[in-house]
Structures are given as C-alpha cells and as structure tokens.
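Researcher: Please predict.
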Amino acid sequence: LMKGLKRSVLGGESLFMTTLTAPSGGGWVDVAANLPGDAVVLPVGEELYLTRGAYLASEASVEIDTKWGGFKNIGGGEGGFLIRATGGGDVVVSCYGAIDRVELAAGEQIVVDSGHLVAFEPSVEYKTRKASAGIMNTLKSGEGFVMEFTGPGVIHTQTRNPDFLVTWLTEVLPFTRA
C-alpha cells in the first residue's frame, strides 16, 4: 500500500495496480490509455525512466516505483519525480499522439519540450533550462522549459503535448467559461 501511495502522490500514477493472469490455456488482455495515441512495448533492460502518465502496463517481473529526479524536473513539468521501471521484462507506455524513438550517440544532444517527453534510459544525461533567453522572449514564445538530453542512449518522445489539449478544451468547452 505504501509503494502505491508513493507512486500515486509523487509519480502521478494509479494508487493500485491490477494483476492479470491468463489461464493455463493462454489468454488475451487489452489495455487502453486515457488519451488518443500510441501504446508501445519497451524493453526495460535494467532500468527505464518514464514521465508522469506514460506508464500503462508491464510484465510481472518489472518493478514500478518513483525516483526523485532532482529539482531540474520541477521546472520540466514532472514535479520533481519520475516513474522508474526496473528488472527484466517489458513495459507498455502510452502517449498523446505518436511515439518517436530517438537514439543518441555518445555526446549527441537533443532539446525536447518538457511536455513531449515519454521515457528515457538512465545512460542519457539531461538538464532542464528555459526555452528562450530572457524573460521577455520566454513570455512571447509561450514556451516555459525544455529538457536538453545528451547521449549515449535512447529517449522516447510524443508528437503532441497533453497540456495543450487541456488548454484548448478549457477555452472551447462552455462549462469552463466564467
């Protein structure tokens, strides 16, 4: 219960996890995400970091927990914590839009809007920074923070930002207007 509470409060995931077991003759389980978009199976290897809301399902051999990602995650929109998947097996992640896999060579860098990050390997170094130089440029661009990743390793991004969907729905739905 305490691990579930930690995962829920700090990682933004469900308090409870359902275990599904197929009968001896085999079986099928369908899982669906909250947002329209891809769901892909990723090998955990030894460890894989997921962003808030990306975890959908995993094999029983995969342990799901939260990890303090440091103050650099607070500005990046993750609230300071990441979901950490460990152990052998696969995890299913979901996103809003399509998932893109980006493999970074040693020293290669990529900048990702914080709302577009889905998952990354622990070998990838990252830092959070302002999207634009100066306060005025940041305000004019509408972008807050971005995450700068340095390889080697793999990151997974989503083509759409769920925060933009919430903003749009807030503007167009009649019950949200004052």
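Model: Confidence is low (pLDDT under 50) at residues 4-12, 71-78.
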